[in-house]
User: Fold this.
Amino acid sequence: MLRVDGLSLAYDQHIPVLEGASLAVEAGHFVSLVGPSGSGKSSLLRAIMGLQQPLAGTIETALAPHEIGILFQDDALLPWRTAVENVALGLRLHGTGRARAIEAATGWLARLGLAGFGDRFPRALSGGQRKRVALAQVLALQPRLLLMDEPFASLDAIVRARVTQQLVSLVEAQGTTVLLVTHDLEEAIALSDRVYLLSHGPRAHISQCYEVAIARPRDVVRARTDPAFAPLLEKLWHDLSHEVASEGETASA
Amino acid sequence: MKALLDRVWLRQLAALIIAVALWEGAGRAGWLNPLYAPEPSAVARALIELFRGGTIWPHLEATFAAALAGLILGLVVGTLLGVAAAMVPLIAEILEPVMLLLNAVPRVVLAPLFVIWLGIDLGSKIAVAFIMVAVLIFFTVFTGIKQVDRRLVERVITLGGGRGALLREVYLPSVVAWIMGNLKVAVGFAFTGAVVGEFVAASRGLGYLLSFAQSTYNAALMLALVLLIMGFVLLLFALAGRLERRLLRWRD
Assistant:
């Protein structure tokens, strides 16, 4: 579905971020990317989306641009469009008529527990509701590959658990492939089939890859009590601490 | 009584009535020179006289026509220039210093020049109102487009939108929001321009009447005209406010 090979990226084309990063995401899998801050996780997603030009390396997807959806950390809903119009926006941009787009958008809002909120402007929605509208906006295009950049970081724990569960159930049902960037190791394990660890930046690369052997469909809260969860978290935490520690050494060297 | 005075506007109204009453009382007691500070009842009489004789209508019409024409022209030209400067760097390089200069001086200083160029008729008044508004709107639109929310732009692009979609979904609503935010200021500017233009040289208009009242030492008429202009500008503010609330529904 997605193959990244030897990818190098830079901020403003001259401050190195990522160097020789390689990863693969198979169709229907949920893959997470974790790593120290500044390791270029977000830049990697932007590069896949074509928003940033790589210095070297290749990004291969067998997908048309409209089959890839992306959800950023800070939701950017159009403030002058209602919730349902925001969700319908992607469909309309792809040529769906207004009435049909609104109808489909209403359905997506309902699926995310926002039935009856369609006529509200973003200002009149809570942070969690806005996030779900942004999610519905991306899911409405039924992307085959969904990229997410710490989408739920700003939500409180309970809302976050609810929204992630809704997301996981929907992508499991649709067979959507997901690449999630997060700094939350527990979230990465609970949601994913595979977790990639980025080394510390600058010039970060993929340093580890972990397979998550927890059955699907998943309950994102119960997944944390699965026997496979604790040992993997322990290992990930150990490896990440190592990355952060070695960053300190390079900085002082 | 106590409950009544809990409302802010009631307290403000009460203060106004007391101030006017004190003024009136001081005038009748002979403490104020009516030549400089005529009492409120004299101002009210002057105001009524203006309407009763029907003399005010051609003047009101002239001022309104100049202010509205200048306002509309200023909005259109200011927006077009602002958009052009934001899109084409060369235009920005040429226009920005000119606009900065025009923004730095009180633009009403151009009024005598416009009278020489365009004569004492409506044209020179429209020109003053226009230049007042156009510079304001130029900066509103120009800086607004440069500060448009990048996240919205990226969102529309990643949802598959092209240039047309960006213009329609992001830039146009942003520009409308900025202009609406400055519409009341623009209305005030347009009236300032029209009245000052008439003040300089005219044969009609509220500014001309003011100038006439000044030359005849008629303070009551001057105060009546000031009240009249305030009233009409407030009326236009209310209309602009309604338009703003309607177009910026999403903000409430």
Remarks:
- Chain A has two domains: 1-63+155-253, 75-143.
